[in-house]
Amino acid sequence: MLRSHSQTLVWPAVIDPRQGQVFAYLSQLERSQWIKPERLRRFQAGQLAARLRHAAETSTFFGPKLQGRVIDPNTAFEVLASLPLLTRADMQDAAEGIYTEPPKEHGAVRTLRTSGSTGQPVAVRCTAACFMLRAAATIRHLGWRGLNTMKTFAAIRANIKTGSVDNPARYRGWGAQMTALFHTGPALGLPINVPVHEQLAFLDRYKPAYLMTYPSNLRALVDQSPERPAGLECVMTIGETLSEDLRADFQSRWGIPLFDEYSSEEMGSIAAQCPHGNYHCTAESHVLEVLDADGRPCQPGEIGRVVITDMANFATAMLRYEIRDYAEVGEPCGCKRGLPVLRRIVGRERNLMKLPDGSKFWPQFGMRDPEATRMVKQYQIIQTSLERLEMKVVADHPLTEHEQSWITALVRTKVKHPFEVVIEQVEGELPKGPNGKFHEFMCMVGS
Ligand SMILES: [Zn+2]
Q: How far is the CA of 306 from the centre of ligand 1 (A)?
């Protein structure tokens, strides 16, 4: 085990204050992924204790909650489990008490502002050390895909501000951190708001081997192009839930490997898919809990809400943050990585449909059934009350009364509830949210 330069970043160790730290992290992460779960948890306990002690001493929000507790590696998980969940509302209303002054060796602090798709921005302060660990995790996960890094990489994302088919954003290599450490092929980028047919023209013209984008954008690409773009060998998705539905359509139409990374703006890379298809949690930076309705840890096969603690970020005490996603706990993975396993990310809370009887589920509307796709090119359904759905539809002809009734009936059948369905026909393409993402379904009914 490497000797750490820092008393508070005990594991993974700090090799050198700046240069080479991403690589130093990466070389540790390459090894730590194979550590057996019990031992991995002991390493986590050491880092978690350091994070909790710092929060106890410096956070006015967590200080009182941790007062008088013995915090050491033997008690760290127990102490963590006794904390209430940190909500997005806490991050908005009590942020000053959640921000903490990091020890000097954690480096400069930057603020990340998450736009969110529901218009509730959150500002998370993040240290240089935390960013470097996140970068190392992202590079490790790229390694799981078995890519040839000399080939061309393309990204279509919200953080790319300019670029068009004729003049895409061009990068010397696959991102600053990768380029600093490895030789890579060129990378190209397009902003997420480029129309889908232009994105397809871009893929056709430059023929990147790899594409990284959001699931909602991939959905639009696959819908408009049943044929795989020539030269494309692998697609990586980030930032949103990848539905089983999309995965199946992607496989049947494009038929190339698809890897998903579970990440968020607040937390960085939370988990990523290995070649066996399971998601492995980034246990070196995060403690990920999946809790049932009573707040108890879920067992393999059970679905619960995801709660995340960032052990590496000492500028914001993200302890037991309720990220409002649901996931299914997995069995140990055949790839033999010791990192905790999620079978799948099931969905986000805002995409849960709520019925008057109190039941909740992630709805399917049947809009990809062959009959429906002849009419509906794109759609978005917003649940505005327990009895009402507002549906925006893009179609290539004005929908008749009969067609609208047919769509309404299909929606009601699929969700098994006689909602009032208000259909509005929209020209062109439906707009994306402020973060560049698009939700086919959103529930605006409070829980
Ligand atoms: Zn695996």
A: 19
For residue 293, tell me if it sits in a domain: no
pLDDT in tens, 372-394: 888 888 899 999 999 999 999 99
**How far apart are the CA of 73 and the centre of ligand 1, in A?**
27
Distance CA 134, CA 284 (A): 10
Q: Is the residue at 48 inside a domain?
A: no
Predicted TM-score (pTM) of the model is 0.84
Task: Give DSSP secondary structure letters for 60-126.
Answer: TTTHHHHTT---STTTHHHHHHHSPPBPHHHHHHSHHHHB----GGG--EEEEEE--SSS--EEEEE
Between the CA of 333 and the centroid of ligand 1 the distance, in Å, is 5
Q: How far is the CA of 148 from the centre of ligand 1 (A)?
A: 20
Alpha carbon of 43 to ligand 1 centroid (Å): 20
Q: What is the CATH number of the domain that holds 391?
A: 3.30.300.30
Range of the domain at 371: 353-443
Contact in structure between 177 and 184 (CB atoms under 8 Å)? no
